[in-house]
DNA sequence: CTGTTAGCGCCTTCAT
DNA sequence: ATGAAGGCGCTAACAG
């Protein structure tokens, strides 16, 4: 059905073979505008014969559309770009963008440096931006030029729609589960202090502890397993009577379990542990991890779709988080 | 240093402000061709003042360069695109491509369907392709038009350079470790049968077992944890005397451990378990997982760089795999 | 309904 | 060393 062309066919070639003008060929291929059934057929046949594939770059150039969707991640160093969470966002976004002829780029946004984001906004090849690890400062630094084609995975603003998991509700479900199981000395390992969307679970924790008349025991974390392991030791040291630890990520929670085991503490016998994310391995560990689901892939797909579509999205789109009760708590 | 332009500046604007022609501006900005120090300075100043960012799409159009690097994954269904391994490849590639103004696209390649790859080769916006899960058939289906700008993570060919971990050596190290620890009834959970790069560890296993006069015990797998769990049961059923299991991925190995635990078998007391990959969580589980390292990120970076650079790469680039001995074996 | 005419933003011979 | 001109591949008004 196609002759292996040495030089890929262009619209011009298609038009010539079909015996019509470029415009007509363009119309039937892009599906825009009118065309007689006859012309339509000629063009389709020519496309088939030539194995013609439109060039998204040329198309974007004339339409002013852009060919890249940027995933921009705020962080203290470029190492944030190596994060599995970021990779999942990029992968899911790429999958959505591919049919549209759009590629995904990955940028590190240093703290307190609006220049990078400014440049991205001035790059005419950029069709939109997904912000990750968003802060108020970052939102304030979003240039006008990006209006309407930028979204955030995390907190949003009046001009930047937000897509995120409902981690307040998820956290509440986990904490209530802990409470229902009789746990009363519950420590929490949080995310980075500068990250607003990691503070919401903390607020939930504070509120619930206050309501139940229980003490607040908070340890800073960074979503990673290594920190969980050290945090477990710290928690044991500062509050020897703890009977539960809630970590804001599964990786951290598994680190906590490792740390507790290091100290000879049984899980869940002595201390219950719960995480957040429901990573694939959460059901495989010993003990299997109690956690709350976190549909990162679906969130990224929704965010990318919103940017691609370009029509105004709802200010906040929350994805439900469900408790997944396993053995660890 | 930049006035927030409503409409991003173009080369034309820069030239006007600098008081030179577009050609001159282009030369100094692209760093190609000659330019007087005076002109150079004028242009640089104008770029700064206007906050000019070149449009990679326009540039690619005129140079015939392309703006997207395609990660193409062979698999039975589009679900392969959701794999964390694939996401890591995409993320690492995106990081490399971004400075070059190139975005990453993600394609699923169905079995026995050369059309998709053909189309990719005819898309003039594609600057190169990284093949993942490569087979001989796939290699044979690589169109001429892709020559010199396609690489494989997995097996390669005369025209497709290969980038991969040295999983033969890695597997040998793991298996010798098992043997040195006194294990003599070693089963192996492999990858998909159709995946050549997953067969290399199997060959190594066969050779070593033969050399040591030990029985071959092979179970098919799919790299995933769930399969490891069921495979453990099968192994126990078919070969009640096994004292070790080597799984071709850490996920699978952790599944195996879970499956053994389900059956009341102690790890490593009764049966040792080893994996391959050294994922971040491998050191956190109970018992901590013995495995071999697998620098996926570095491999993807090398592959993407090779495609971007466009100069012929070595036929095969092998990344070393190191034994990481922990508690499970 | 179709073809002609202009570009989108940029690079690259060619003269100068 | 610089400018003018042409064109990469495509779409979007325009006329016809």
Automatic annotation (TrEMBL), chains A, B:
Residues annotated as domain HTH lacI-type: 9-63
Keywords carried by this UniProt record: DNA-binding, Transcription, Transcription regulation
Pfam families recorded: LacI, Peripla_BP_3
GO molecular-function term, one example from the UniProt record: DNA binding
PANTHER family: HTH-TYPE TRANSCRIPTIONAL REGULATOR GALS, LACI-RELATED TRANSCRIPTIONAL REPRESSOR
SUPFAM superfamilies given in the database record: lambda repressor-like DNA-binding domains, Periplasmic binding protein-like I
Higher taxonomy: Bacteria, Bacillati, Actinomycetota, Actinomycetes, Micromonosporales
The name this protein goes by in its record: LacI family DNA-binding transcriptional regulator
Species, as recorded: Micromonospora parva
């Amino acid at each position: 059905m196609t002759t292996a062309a040495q030089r890929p066919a262009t619209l011009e070639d298609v038009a010539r073979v079909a015996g019509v003008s470029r415009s007509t060929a363009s119309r039937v291929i892009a599906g825009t505008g009118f065309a007689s059934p006859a012309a339509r057929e000629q063009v389709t046949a020519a496309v088939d014969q030539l194995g013609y594939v439109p060039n998204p770059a040329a198309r974007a150039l004339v339409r002013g559309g852009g060919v890249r969707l940027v995933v921009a991640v705020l962080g203290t160093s470029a190492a944030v770009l190596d994060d599995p969470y970021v990779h999942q966002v990029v992968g899911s976004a790429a999958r959505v963008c591919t049919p549209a002829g759009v590629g995904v780029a990955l940028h590190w946004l240093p703290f307190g440096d609006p220049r990078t984001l400014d440049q991205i906004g001035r790059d005419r090849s950029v069709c939109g931006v997904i912000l990750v690890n968003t802060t108020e400062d970052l939102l304030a630094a979003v240039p006008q030029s990006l209006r309407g084609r930028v979204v955030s995975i995390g907190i949003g603003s009046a001009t930047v729609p937000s897509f995120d998991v409902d981690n307040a509700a998820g956290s509440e479900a986990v904490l209530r589960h802990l409470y229902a199981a009789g746990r009363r000395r519950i420590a929490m390992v949080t995310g980075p202090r500068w990250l607003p969307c990691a503070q919401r679970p903390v607020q939930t924790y504070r509120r619930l502890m206050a309501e139940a008349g229980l003490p607040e025991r908070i340890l800073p974390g960074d979503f990673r397993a290594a920190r969980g392991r050290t945090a477990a030791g710290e928690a044991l040291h500062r509050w020897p009577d703890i009977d539960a630890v809630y970590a804001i990520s599964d990786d951290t929670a598994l680190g906590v379990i490792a740390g507790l085991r290091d100290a000879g503490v049984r899980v869940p016998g002595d201390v219950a542990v719960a995480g957040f994310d429901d990573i694939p391995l959460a059901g495989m560990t010993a003990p299997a991890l109690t956690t709350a689901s976190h549909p990162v892939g679906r969130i990224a797909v929704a965010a990318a779709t919103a940017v691609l579509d370009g029509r105004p999205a709802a200010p906040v789109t929350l994805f439900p988080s469900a408790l997944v009760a396993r053995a660890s708590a």
